[in-house]
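Note to self: the last two entries modelled the partners one at a time, which told us nothing about the interface. This time every component goes in together.
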Amino acid sequence: MSDLPIIPEDKIKSASQGLRAIAHELRLSVLCLLLERPMCVHELIEATGAAQSNLSQHLSKMRMLGILESEKRGQEVMYSIANPDFAELVNALKQIYCPEMVCAAPTAKEG
Amino acid sequence: MSDLPIIPEDKIKSASQGLRAIAHELRLSVLCLLLERPMCVHELIEATGAAQSNLSQHLSKMRMLGILESEKRGQEVMYSIANPDFAELVNALKQIYCPEMVCAAPTAKEG
DNA sequence: TGATTATATAAGTGGAAACGAATATATTTC
DNA sequence: GAAATATATTCGTTTCCACTTATATAATCA
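The predicted structure of the combined assembly is written out below.
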């Protein structure tokens, strides 16, 4: 019997599901790209070098999980990050793994 | 040819490896527990309800990845978080998934 | 309307990860 | 030194993921 603050099972389940969702090289790359601006599928294909079908499946998975949202524009489909939590999470990762690429909160000193 | 700030492949690879490492319910639970204080294996078994062999395998995996470190104390083995980045990451998750459990940076107003 | 472009979905396959069962190793106690 | 406790490791099985190939749908254009 410990008096530890146990995290509820369902929270753990959601969190690990969220992590699994972004713990994939291609999906993470896509999220990093969409952090900059919304993009359509063929832009993402070009930027990542992924196969069309494969990328489409990953996009679809992230959309179903509420991470991404999509909007049809003509024959293209624009994808963007739907859940700001994931934008934050990816930013946190960038700060850990490539601090020099994160322009972070501007210190209000530089131009 | 886009002028997007592409994240280098090896950074993506490290990041997604790190995410996969914690994107598992049991491993994430362990990390949350160890966020409080170092614990020995049978404490973790009791707190998580996991099978001994299974938990041991996960601990071993996280130790090999540099996430955890262990110190033998008598016949027990104490585990703790070795890499502060992961502590931060897990804290970030807590803020997203259970904000009410995070005592965060004290606002210096409450007792 | 037929061809082309953009994207999605389905089906099959290969490989990795997780788990349980059994066993091994180290430490303590008697 | 034998039993008990604490933890690690090995092995075999199953389950889950990702990827490719092929096909479907929708929009545009000729």
